[in-house]
């Protein structure tokens, strides 16, 4: 194994390792997500409310096109990290090679299906006229580009496994800057509207997918391409470890579709646009949580495979503490300054949308009191190759309790929808706590 990577994950003091890996990880993920936030600002301020609502209708389906590819990328990263911890580098390289080819194949299939069925799916959601037309166009551009863009998230994981933490961060920053530059060119200069916005994000991702592949193709990375040897147990392991992410993408986006249908019926396109504001505000927080958790998965998986359980325990403490702090700050800011935050995405002349978004954001912000615990727990179970527990949390978070809360909170009308996620994370947090206690008792047997 590469000695620098070995020293980083096996010998660096846990707190120092946390800051070494987590800070660049957070910066990289925030840079990757900042484009989505800026895209929302541009669409809301320069293109208009119909385009804003159309983009929000199409976005869950856009994420579904990534579902299979993301499952393979995330699912393969766990056994690769553990294999390196055990010193089985040949197996790690084979899983890596098999996964990259599978990701490209899956992206072609899902992109083609989404392109063909885009009009039907948007129509089933209840969209009509100009909003429906814009949503179909936005979705089809993303589906067409999917084979070129699907690798970008998986390559980010593979770079971190190889110890390319700063390179990963730099590439994510570059991608965000490139996308913003293309967004200004296509939307402001060339006035291409939502079409320009779609091309800006996809061209940026495609460019960075190619750049990320270069050190692996040149053989300069810890992970190396080899002739893939597909074995059933590798596929099963990848699917098992990636299934929580897959189910989260599918179930979560399907529930978003349900939310959009309910929002259209209860409050029309204004309610859908307000929900878009909430999702963009969530995007301000998620990069921090994802960056803190995702950046630590390779080190936790490596030390779990090497049976360094004391280090695992110390690293997990760092993850839970940091995510709790981030979430506390998010609640304070969003509950205290909802109008100021909502006005970033909403044109001040649209008074009705601004008022609804301000009210919705104050209720929605409560979710951050509980979200961090489920997020960190799921990440931990993924890192130590316990996908069943992660899958239970995923299903509970993405589909089971959200649907239950829709029914329980129905008398509150739109307020019930804004509070849905906060109410969901309470019972899910209890489930996660019980699972962690059982795992902690098992882990205590190995820690002296």
Can you give a write-up of this model?
The structure is a single chain. With 448 residues, this protein is an all-alpha fold. 87% of the residues lie in helices and 0% in strands. The mean pLDDT is 84. It is globular. α3 (49-65) runs parallel beside α6. The longest helix has 74 residues, at 232-305. The protein is built from 17 helices and no strands. The two termini are 27 Å apart.
Give a brief description.
The chain is mostly helical. 87% of the residues lie in helices and 0% in strands.
Secondary structure: elements and pairs:
Layout: H1 3-10, H2 14-47, H3 49-65, H4 67-86, H5 89-124, H6 129-149, H7 151-161, H8 165-189, H9 193-217, H10 232-305, H11 309-336, H12 338-345, H13 351-364, H14 368-383, H15 387-408, H16 414-418, H17 420-444
Beta content comes to: under 5%
Count of helical stretches: 17
* Global shape: globular
N-to-C series of helices and strands: HHHHHHHHHHHHHHHHH
Q: How far apart are the termini?
A: 27 Å
Mean pLDDT: 84
DSSP strand count: 0
Helicity, in percent? over 70%
Largest sheet: none
Structural class: mainly alpha
What value does the Rg take, in angstroms? Answer: 21 Å
Low-confidence segments: none
What distinguishing features does this structure have?
448 residues, mainly alpha
